[in-house]
Amino acid sequence: MGRVGYNVLMQEDSFRLAVTKGAADHYAMISDVGELVEDQGQAVIKGFDAVVDWDKNDERLIVRFLKMDKKMGGKLGSLQFDLTGIDVKSGHGRSLKQPIAKAVGIKRGDAWRPKVLDCTAGLGEDGFLLAAFGCEVTLIEQHPLVYAMLRDAINKAGQGDEGLAEIVGRMDLRPGNAITTMRELESDAYDVVYLDPMYPEKKRHVSARTKKSIWFLRQLLGHDEADSDNTVGLFEQAIAVANKRVVVKRPNHAPPLINEAHKKPEASHKGKSFRFDVYPRH
Ligand SMILES: C[S@@+](CC[C@H](N)C(=O)[O-])C[C@H]1O[C@@H](n2cnc3c(N)ncnc32)[C@H](O)[C@@H]1O
Questions:
Q1: Which residues does the record give as S-adenosyl-L-methionine binding sites (predicted)?
Q2: 274, 271, 268: which is closest to 253 by C-alpha?
């Protein structure tokens, strides 16, 4: 296509998203973006009235919606992932009382921090929060476009104030399928494996208030059933590699991801809408 920023190359029956200008080499790793099709010089997200574009001012990928779901207020708009708005400075934001901090095993008054493998990077928000608590976090994202947008958000946050730069300095984002990544890991590489698969949405929660980025992920990726190969594969590998525990984020209304006789969450740390189920390593 030859436009600034990215190229979509047709390769037999798949597409390759390659950023050609203004971005770092890691985009070369992005491949097989089956969801992008070329239409009149634009990379259109298939089945989804949106295009992937290059924001010249910000030097970042941007998704521009050509039509928006009525549930999202019907307004046109655009989307970039953003980590800079996450509260890690106020007393509440910093608080180690947050359920996610407790779930990964952080104790107040103890300087030890678990090394975390976040197998479902997504918008990077949970990984960022854990990094803000001082954890070294490796994040894996399987979807090329989500990976690219998160890479942008991490770079952008790294150019922010020193505090933000320090936090994202503890985040190591890698592309790929986390099940494969975990199979290739040295044993004891991570204390905690963190999973937050896409969950089915409760109908009454579909509202104009749904955050645009979450709505986007749902449209792009659908959701994982609790018994899908992905969910089961993630959990089984996670239990096999976590040095201390596996933490699974679930909406409060959903049952535990895995709740079999020999694999029940040992503890659950509840927040307002989500809880964090803890499965200790056997
Ligand atoms: C619900 S989102 C995660 C949101 C994230 N916890 C956050 O705070 O922004 C789930 C993400 O996990 C990714 N994912 C699901 N299964 C994966 C796998 N096997 N390997 C890598 N990424 C995966 C999806 O592509 C999606 O981006």
A1: 196
A2: 274
Cα of 122 from ligand 1 centre, angstroms: 4
CATH number at residue 208: 3.40.50.150
Q: Do both 21 and 115 map to the same domain?
A: no
One domain, residues 111 and 181: yes
Q: Which is higher by pLDDT, 67 or 178?
A: 178
Q: List, for residues 116-172, the tens digit of each pLDDT value.
A: 999 999 999 999 999 999 999 999 998 878 888 898 899 999 998 899 999 999 999
Domain range for 17: 7-79
Report which protein residue has its CA nearest ligand 1's atom 14. Answer: 120
Q: What does the block give as tokens for 226?
A: 């609790």
**Candidate of 81, 128, 142, 230 to mutate for ligand 1, largest count of ligand atoms within 8 Å of Cβ:** 142
- The structural domain count of the chain equals 2
